[in-house]
Structure formats: structure tokens, C-alpha cells
Amino acid sequence: MKRAGIITGVLAGLFFLGCGKTMYTNVDMPPKRVKLIKDFGEDASKMLLKELKKELKTALKTKGPVGAIDVCSKKALEITEEVAEEIGDIEIKRTSFKYRNPKNKPDSYEAEALRFFEKTLKETGKLPPYYIQKVNGEYRYYKPLKVQSVCLTCHGNPKEMDPKVLRKLKELYPQDKATGYKLGDFRGVIRVSIPEDVIKKSCL
Ligand code: HEC
Fold this sequence. Notes:
This protein has 6 helices and 4 strands; from the N terminus they run ααβαββααβα. The chain has helices at 2-13, 31-87, 108-124, 152-155, 163-172, 196-202; strands at residues 91-95, 131-135, 138-146, 186-195. The relative contact order is 0.18. Residues 58-195 form the Tll0287-like domain. It comes from Persephonella hydrogeniphila. This is Tll0287-like domain-containing protein.
């Protein structure tokens, strides 16, 4: 049902094409296709963010920051897979150069996307809204993530973080790279992979 909803939404969106907007992609393709991939990617990443935030908020409220780490640690990857399954045909991952869980380490294509965001941010002072790559039969949609104040509890300056939180993080992630962020920093990306077939089938 969800999938059908997304596709209908995407098709409805096709009418608003061709308004000469910049396309953030490393492949040459018609704006119509970019729009379709963008809509798929946005829907999937928004759904993931909603689920993660809901879980994080409840955990922080009921268990406090140390307990919430446990929830993030056990559930983040699970929730990511569940959202991908619910939408169907896609794969989702969160990744960053400064990753906490080694399972979230970027591959070479993801590293290229991360560099694109970092470079553009440095040159223009702004994060591009998305980036699209074509990789081995799939399109990869990347959504950049910024550090908000709630993130600082677990990703902030270690000197300002609760020592109990730091201890717990060290215990679970001895190689943790994901602290030292400031409000508004570029934290990493959500990657949504959509098979080329799905996009081709949906393109009129
Ligand atoms: C309660 C602590 C906590 C808070 C608050 C928190 N995170 Fe995390 N974050 C974690 C943990 C633990 C992981 C590792 C999850 C795993 O094992 O997959 C993580 C992983 C991530 C990752 C995946 C890449 C990596 O480093 O492994 C991203 C991206 C991320 N967090 C972004 C955010 C953002 C953005 C916010 C604020 C909206 C936030 N986090 C708030 C604890 C937290």
C-alpha cells in the first residue's frame, strides 16, 4: 500500500518539472528522472528520520541519555532495514566519515557523495539538498544530515557531554569517531538505493 502511495505521489509530482532548477547528480539524465529519484529518496529518508526520531524521543524521555544509547545501538540498523522493507525494492543506509558503528562506514561511492557535500558546503556555505549517483544498476539518492541540538547529547564536544554517556559510548563503540560536532555541522547522509528498473518502470 505504502509503495503504491509513493508511486502515485511521484507521478503527480511530474507536472512540476522543468523549472530550470540545479540538478545535483554525477550522471547526465533527464530532469524527469532526477525528479522521480528525488521523490523516492525524499519519501524514504523522511520515513526513516520520522521513525528514528520517534524512537529517540521516547527513549530519551523514558530511559534518559544513557538508556537511549542502548536503544539507538540496538535499533538504528533494525529500523533502517524495516523502513526499506516497508517501502520495498530499496535499500537504506546511514553513513558518515566520522562513523560510530563500523557497519556504517562509507564505501567508495558513498565517500564520493560525502566529499561532494563537504566541498560544496565549504565553497558556498550551504549544504546542497541532495545528491544522486548511478552505481551498478541502481540509483543512489543521498540526503545530508545536519547536527541539531538534541544530537549533541551523544555527538557533541566530549568535554561538554555527560561522562556517563561517554563511558557507555566507549564501551559499545571503542573506535567511535562520531563526537566533537557542533550545532549545524554536516553529520553525514542517508543513502537510499533504488534499482534502475524501478525508476525505468515508473518513468512514462
Ligand atoms: C542517545 C544518543 C544519540 C543521540 C541523541 C543521537 N545519536 Fe546518532 N548515533 C547514536 C548511536 C549509538 C549510533 C550508532 C548506531 C548504530 O550502531 O548503528 C548513532 C549513529 C548515527 C549515525 C550513523 C553513522 C554512524 O556514526 O554510525 C548518524 C548519521 C547519526 N547517528 C546522526 C544523528 C543525528 C543527526 C542526531 C540528532 C538528530 C543523532 N544522531 C542523535 C547515538 C545517538
